[in-house]
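Quick illustration, no need to memorize.
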Amino acid sequence: MRVAVVGAGIVGACTAWALVRKGADVTLYERKQPMAETSRASSKLLHGGLRYLETGHVRLVGKSLQARATWLEQAPHLCEQLQLLLPVYRGVGRPRWAIGAGIRLYDMLARGSGFPKGQWMSASEVLARQPGLAADNLQGAYAFYDAKMDDEALGQWVVEQFRARGGQLDCGHEVQHLDALAGFDRIVNATGPWALALRQTQPGAPAYALDWVRGSHIVLDRPCVAAMLLQVPNDKRIFFVLPRKGQTLVGTTEVRQETPDNPGPSEAEIDYLLAAHNHYLGPPAQRSDVTEAFAGVRPLIRSADNPTEATREWAFERVGKVLHIYGGKWTTAQLQGEDAATRILQ
């Protein structure tokens, strides 16, 4: 069966890879280069999504934790386990008992994945690891594990696996209308933020609506001595402070926008991330310490007024011989690709 997959982000690449493993003759179309958009603008984590437990997405977290282990098994040269600290402050933010319950559930869902269990660290132990952390009212921190990765390199590795199986990659080829692929037996629309634009070249209303949510990051010219998950001051949102090639990666924002196109980080987002970082960590970082700022537009299935609470699950819509893919997340892209491949070949 001849199948066209449109979009060589991580979901499209994983779908194309799954299809060639199932014996299909696959061409992967990309208007730029693989991983050129959202897929290379992540927080560089393979993670279960600890915060998604709070909104009841337990099933998604379980799938993500097992998918995380698969990535490490397949490509250990491009990803590795990472310990993160989640500090707890007396009278501020989520209480210790709630965070502890979340960590225990996270460990239960990750059972058998080969990752160490979370543990409690005293305030003195935490400050020994991260001397720059604000110490007032610090009770301690939970240390738990996820994995860090090079998102662009790992995505390119998937494309290499696809091509090694005989898949064809066609870069610099923008598919603007599905009629252009009329010669294929099946078509997969894996264009991420632009999925609705391609869907609209077919009759009928789409089965799903997308939220285009921009996630921005900054890179600071300083080493990151300990990876951390922190709560944004006066907000329930969380943000990461992570090691990134000898520097410190801080992210992310969640800004809903009206189009799928990526305008890059705004100065307001950069200031927001600097303020969140400086609330907890010293010496304070200045705008001049920002060596890089980047953003990715996430195509989330519209499921909540607040994008922080929107699901990171995925959905499919089959219209004739075309399968449209909506939503998803980096960590579970292989599961999503396998699911898409099975459905389009039916």
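The CA atoms of residues 44 and 149 lie 5 Å apart.
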